[in-house]
Amino acid sequence: MYHEETLTVSFDYESFDDYEMLAARFGVQQPEDGTNYRTKDRRKPKRKSPQQEVAELADTPNALEEDFRISYTPARYEAIWLKESLQPFFTQALLEDVLALVKGGKEANVYLCKATPTMPTPYIAAKVYRPRQFRNLRNDKMYREGRELLSGLGIPIKNQDNREMRAVRKKTTFGAELTHISWLMHEYVTLERLFGLGAAVPAPLGAGENAILMAFVGDRYRPAPVLHGVTLPPAEARRLFEVVLHNIDLMLQYGMIHGDLSAYNILYWEGAVTLIDFPQVTLSESNHNAFRIFQRDVRRVCEYFASQGVSSDPQRLATEMWAKHVRLAPDRTVQDRE
Ligand SMILES: Nc1ncnc2c1ncn2[C@@H]1O[C@H](COP(=O)(O)OP(=O)(O)OP(=O)(O)O)[C@@H](O)[C@H]1O
Ligand SMILES: [Mg+2]
Question: What pTM, to 2 d.p., does this model score?
Answer without folding.
Answer: 0.79
